[in-house]
Amino acid sequence: MTLEAPLKSPPRYQRRGLMLVLSSPSGAGKTSISRRVLELEPEVTMSVSVTTRPKRPAEVEGRDYYFVDEARFRAMVERGELLEHALVYGHHYGTPRAAVEAALAAGRDVLFDIDWQGAQQLREAAADDVVGVFILAPSLAALEQRLRSRAQDSEEVVRYRLARVAADVTHWAEYEYVLINHELEASVAAVRAILAAERLKRRRQPFLSEFVQQFRTGSGEG
Description:
This protein is an alpha/beta fold. Helix content is about 40%, strand content about 20%.
């Protein structure tokens, strides 16, 4: 399992990457949105979490998650190797620190498909790098239909997830952006618009002071 990436010196005029956090109650569509954004945005890479949850049949180790046991997960927490970690629906999830920090320094954006607990911890660890988008289903009925139609969980798990919705949605106000997911492609376009705007924020372009200086001194670079 490779969870670390080497840090390299950034090019002279390179922006800093950002952490794009998508959160929602289970079934609101954040995973579908995430996958489509990754297809369309070459500068975005997915944060691959570690989890103690059992692997589902269609999932691939290292692409969807890194699957670890409880002992390995606890050791990673104790060594400070995770940017955030949370207990969600009875299983532990966490974000490996080294790979994310390397990506941001290299000017790449990192997409997180995590819950509100993880989002809070990311803000505590690196508030200036985090852009949060909370995704809502058009209605409770639509959310229930999505949960049942994907046929990945037992009836007991579906009912448990539905019972958690009321608590999960109370965290919408903690996010910079809130998106009601009526239609997938429209929601994807909205997330891409958020990305475009956030990339241009002054704090994500650390080279600007040096770049602007050429216009003050007349030492333009062409």
